[in-house]
Specification:
Elements lengths: L11 E3 L12 H4 L7 E9 L5 E15 L2 E10 L1 H23 L2 E7 L4 E4 L1 H6 L8 E3 H7 L2 H15 L6 E8 L5 E13 L5 E10 L1 H58 L3 H10 L8 E3 L9 H6 L3 E3 L3 H7 L1
Antiparallel strand pairs: 1-2, 2-3, 3-4, 5-6, 5-10, 6-7, 8-9, 9-10, 11-12
Length: 323
C-alpha cells in the first residue's frame, strides 16, 4: 500500500519460492471460482524497484452482487517480518539441537498442570532409549526411577517446585524395559507459574551420565583399595620390625648354644653325662665343678671322675638350660 494514499502499489505476485504465479492461481481469480472461502495462501509481492514482501492472502466471495458484478473480500497480511523471525528461530533451533547432541543433551518439557512429559526424540534415538518415552506422563517417568532413590528424588523435586531451590539438578538410575538401567541427569527449572505461584511447567535438559558415574564409582573403589593396601603395608612394616628383633635375639641364643656344644665336644662329655650328673646331684667338671684333687677320684671309677665336688665354675643347671 502507498503510505500516502493507501492505494495498492503496482507489482507482481509470485510463489514464495520466486516462481511465476499463473493467472488462474491468483487469489482474486481463485475466490470467484468457488463459493468456499479461500484459505490463507503464502505469496510474494515484488515491486517495480525490486522490493519484496511476503504476504498471506485469504478471502471469500460475497453473496451479493454490485451492479451485476460479483464481489469478493480479500484479506492481505504482510508476513515478511514474521517469516524472517521464524526462519531465524528455526536456524537457531537447528544449531542448538546440533550443539546439544554433541554435548550429549536432550530437551525435556514437563507440564505440571496436566502431567504430560515430552522428551527429545533425537536424543532418545541417539542413546538407544525407548521411543515411547518421547510422549509420556509424569507418573510413567517416576515409575521407571530406581525405588531406592525415588524418595530422595521426590523430596528435592518438591523443594524446587515450591520455589525453595532456584534450579533442579539431580541424577538417578532409570530402569529400561529390557532390564538394563541408565544413570540420567535432569537439569532444569520452573519457567511458568500461575497467579498463586503454583508451578505449571518445567523445562530442562537430560544427560546420560552412566559412563561418568561408573567411572567415578570405579575410581572411589580403587582409592579405597589403595587406602587398604597402605594400612596393610604399615602393618607389614611393624611386623617386619618385630621379626627383625626376634631374629637378632635368636642369633644370640643359637650362638650361645653352638659355643656350649663345641665346648662339650672338646672335653669329651656328652649331653647324657651332664644330664645324668645333674640328676645324681653331681657336677661335671668341664661345665660344673673342677676337682680339687683328681687323684682322690681315681678309685671311684669313671662316674666319680667325671662328676665330683669342687670349686664352682658354671652351674650344671645353667649348662642344662643352654643345651
Amino acid at each position: 500500500l502507498d503510505d500516502a494514499t493507501g492505494d495498492l502499489l503496482p507489482g507482481e505476485l509470485f510463489h514464495p519460492d520466486g516462481s511465476q504465479l499463473a493467472s488462474e492461481h491468483r487469489p482474486e481469480q481463485r475466490v470467484f471460482r468457488t463459493s468456499e472461502p479461500l484459505p490463507s495462501t503464502p505469496l510474494m509481492w515484488v515491486g517495480p524497484s525490486g522490493r519484496r514482501r511476503l504476504l498471506a492472502v485469504s478471502g471469500t466471495r460475497l453473496p451479493s452482487e454490485h451492479e451485476g458484478k460479483a464481489s469478493a473480500l480479500l484479506v492481505v497480511q504482510d508476513t515478511t517480518l514474521q517469516t524472517a523471525l521464524q526462519r531465524a528461530s528455526r536456524h537457531a533451533r537447528n544449531r542448538l539441537d546440533a550443539a546439544m547432541r554433541a554435548a550429549n543433551l536432550g530437551r525435556i518439557d514437563i507440564r505440571l498442570d496436566t502431567g504430560a512429559v515430552s522428551v527429545d526424540r533425537a536424543w532418545l534415538c541417539q542413546h538407544e532409549l525407548p521411543p515411547e518415552w518421547a510422549e509420556s506422563s509424569l507418573d510413567q517417568v517416576l515409575h521407571q526411577v530406581d525405588p531406592s532413590e525415588l524418595e530422595d528424588l521426590q523430596s528435592i523435586w518438591t523443594e524446587h517446585l515450591r520455589g525453595r531451590e532456584a534450579a533442579f539438578d539431580q541424577s538417578t538410575w532409570v530402569h529400561l524395559p529390557d532390564g538394563d538401567r541408565r544413570r540420567i541427569q535432569l537439569t532444569g527449572q520452573v519457567d511458568l507459574r500461575d497467579a498463586h505461584g503454583r508451578a505449571l511447567r518445567l523445562t530442562g535438559v537430560l544427560k546420560d551420565v552412566t559412563q561418568t558415574y561408573e567411572a567415578l564409582a570405579s575410581t572411589h573403589r580403587m582409592e579405597a583399595q589403595a587406602a587398604q593396601l597402605a594400612r596393610m603395608e604399615g602393618i607389614a612394616a611393624v611386623a617386619g620390625g618385630v621379626a627383625h628383633t626376634f631374629s637378632n635375639l635368636l642369633a644370640g641364643i643359637l650362638g650361645s648354644v653352638a659355643y656350649q656344644k663345641r665346648h662339650i665336644r672338646e672335653v669329651g662329655y656328652s649331653a647324657v653325662d651332664i644330664l645324668s650328673a645333674n640328676t645324681n646331684g653331681g657336677f661335671c667338671s668341664p661345665v660344673g665343678f673342677a676337682p680339687q684333687n683328681p687323684a682322690d677320684n681315681a678309685a671311684k671309677g669313671a662316674d666319680a671322675l667325671n662328676c665330683s665336688t669342687g670349686n664352682p665354675r658354671t652351674s650344671t643347671s645353667a649348662a642344662y638350660q643352654a643345651i
